[in-house]
Amino acid sequence: MLLGDIKNLVGKEIRLELRQKYVINGILLYLVSTIFVTFLAFDDVVSVETWNSLFWIILLFVAVNGISKSFLQESPARHIYYYTLASPQAVILAKITYNLLLMIILSSLSFLFFSLMMGNKVVDLPLFLICLLLGSLGMTSILTMVAAIASRATNNFSLMAILSFPIILPLLSTLMKVSKSALSMTEGTGNTGFIILLLTINGAVIILAYLLFPYLWRD
Question: Residue 106 burial by CB count (10 A; 0-12/13-18/19+): exposed, middle or buried?
Answer without folding.
Answer: buried
